[in-house]
Amino acid sequence: MNGMIRFLRNQRKTDIILLAVALGCLIATAVQYPLSTTFPIGGDGAAIIQRVQHTLTDPLLTIRNISHTWYPVSYALFSSNALIPHVYWPTAFSSWMALGQILTGLAIGRLVYRLAGIQASALAMGLWALTPITMTSFFEDGTMAQLWSLPWLILFFERMHQRSLKGMFLFCLLALFSHPITAAILIGTLIITALILWIHRHTELKKQEQMLKIVYLICAFACVIIASAALLFKKSIITLQFTHEASKYAQDMFHGFFLPWLLAGIFGWATIIKNHASRYVFFTSMGSFIFLSILLAMNNSLGIGFWTNRLNSYLILCIVIFAAIGMDKILKNLNNQFITAAISICLIAGLAMSTFVDNKNIYTRYESSSTYARIHPDELAAIAWMNTNLPNYADVYSTIKTRNYEWIPVLTSLRWKPLEDWEIPSVQNNHAIIYPIFVYFTRAEGVPEDVWGRPDIFRLEYHNDGAMIFHIIPL
User: Fold this and answer.
1) In this structure, are residues 450 and 414 in contact, taking their beta carbons and an 8 Å threshold?
2) What is the DSSP letter of 443?
């Protein structure tokens, strides 16, 4: 705290005001999500919560759940929400997403401060404040693990710039075990970097010999991880299913409101080349990261179309970082501290306000009961009924027509298992199942005729406009 106070005392008042405005915008557009919605958006929230919600009541189960995922660091950090008294996990999830957005913005600000100073740092945080929903899909998809991997990735580069070998290794480990996509990009970046440095060895690199060694060591460690993952998960990797998709953010990035920042980012990268070329390892790593980010974000243009909306976020990181540096360089050419600060403040605040208004309309749509953008209030009412009226030994079954069913074990103490329609007879004939329940969320699917036509077997226990719950009478 004392160090932070000393740091602020050494800054100009205009820079402090700019930093405060940028931080305010960053927090405002992030916390707007939990404050504007009553329930998490996206399909991953329930699956994530289910793995960690018993952290205090059954820690061994939680450890086993976390260890069997691709996201152990992200899940372990999220499990700390169990320490909150009487935690309501859906609210905790939304707030945790907002915190991840803020932490990523702070990490970006720290890296850019190292590269170009406090004004560029504030601009970077202000630009990142524009990205929720508008340019990234984390909030709408509920991809908490990927969002929480970004701070470690950015801080890895920040530690590399500062030539902190321990810091590099620490944040590399955190990034590698937070999310596989971030891990793959970091590994790819370091492999490309290592190859370039190996080919272009020169006397300047001797001054950074320790840095080279840590890069090679991390590459070797990463190769071991890749080999282990290939052996353990080869079947799931080979059979990974995906639907060809085009990036819904490309229009804004290359033709819309983000285009000026893309152009400023190009200028910012040119500035980095000029000012940081002596830090050859860092410069080469950032160049490799930019190359991979562009390649992956635009893979649909190569005829692949693999997760372009998720991969887009790494390119957005690059644009935000270097656009802030480029814009800072342009503003400093005005040679007027007050005008520069005024333009920066008006720019950040105005764009953040526009983003806030646009996102408000989107959150309103998700909250509307007339749409089916997330779990519907009628479905939540049905789950609440099950939690109150069904015995603890009841087994709840459903189809997999919607991921909203995944909230059943999160919001109740009941066991839930997804089934296909043709598997229902296996439940009827299994006398070991004492109290079988089948639920249909009728906004996502209709009730089959076989169920409607057999009231002696499928006894209707509860219904509303969005759900029907049947007690299956064993044969």
Assistant:
1) no
2) T
**Does a structural domain hold residue 188?**
yes
Is residue 251 assigned to a domain?
yes
Query: Which CATH number goes with the domain that contains 388?
Result: 3.40.190
Pick the last residue of a domain from 367, 389, 410: 367
Quote the tokens at residue 414: 């009941």
Q: Give the residue-averaged pLDDT of 179-200.
A: 86
In a domain, 1, yes or no: no
- Identify the residue with better confidence: 115 or 304: 115
Measured at the alpha carbon of residue 92, what is the angle toward residues 129 and 398, in degrees to the nearest 5? Answer: 115
Q: Which tens digits make up the pLDDT trace of 234-246?
A: 555 445 555 666 6
Tokens describing residue 470? 């049947």
Average pLDDT, rounded, for the chain: 87
Residue position matching structure tokens 């996206």 = 42
Q: Indicate if the pLDDT at residue 345 is higher than 80.
A: yes
Nearest to 329 by CA among 100, 26, 124: 124
Q: Which two tokens stand for residue 66?
A: 């976390």
**What DSSP letter does each residue of 374-426 carry, written as one string?**
SS-HHHHHHHHHHHHHS-TTEEEEE-SS-GGGGGHHHHSSSEEEE--GGGHHH
Q: What is the pLDDT of residues 230-280, one digit of tens each?
A: 565 555 544 555 566 666 777 767 777 788 898 999 999 998 888 766 777
Note whether 361 and 402 are same-domain residues: no
- Tally the domains of the chain: 2
How many helical (H) and strand (E) elements, i.e. helices and strands, does the chain have? 22, 5
